Amino acid sequence: MNSFSALTLLPLSVAIVGAVFSGVLLNRYVNGKRRPHELVWGIAFLMFAIAAGSQVYADAVGGWTPLSARTFYLFGAILNVGYLGLGTMYLLFSRRVARLSLIVTLLLTAYAIYSTFSVPLNVSALANTQEVDWKLLFSVDVMPRILAGVFSGVGSVIVIAGALWSAYIFWRKRIMKERMIGLILLAVGTFTVAFGGTLKGLLHNDDYLYPTMAIGVVLMFFGYLQTIRVSVAKAKVPEHVTSNA
After folding, report:
1. Among 2, 7, 156, 190, which is most exposed with the fewest C-beta within 10 angstroms?
2. Is 1 domain-assigned?
């Protein structure tokens, strides 16, 4: 894409949807019961919006710049799924475990920011304004690519495995049906986003990235909406079952 075109509507839609969903979550956190997973997921959705917005900017100005490419990679390839995993830790595990995960995530985030914005870039990879070869871009120093694998891999496992396991527990105990459905949607949405990123990497074609990202983000948000419906039925559930919500 050498200029702003109809194809830019795909990343633009992801940027808008991500920003709106982030606003809903952060507003609920600030004006609600200050549930930590809502804050973290709100930040994760904002990262989706920033990454997609970087693509929109690149289309608008006629190509990627080193700054927009670094921003896209940091928020789109490295951090976002990891923060979805952190939010899931707050939702499903004890506060002690979640806070330890927060400390580790923040330390890795600081290192990811430093690494992504300090390593030399192979600027020749930015010559193809439509489909950047990200492996070539970070060929001088592969640490950003390693961090992307760590954040995305661990985050995906936490969200998908944790959500499906918890959904199974709720189903077996015949409790918290809304949360069970919500967690399944979160898992499917995360898998959809990861699948799109995998297709992009294997086929070197951005056409697969944003449609799957848009679908995945919507699924995750509707999954979140299902998890908060459980508050209506909390009075009917033993307190120890919902103590981590």
Report:
1. 2
2. no
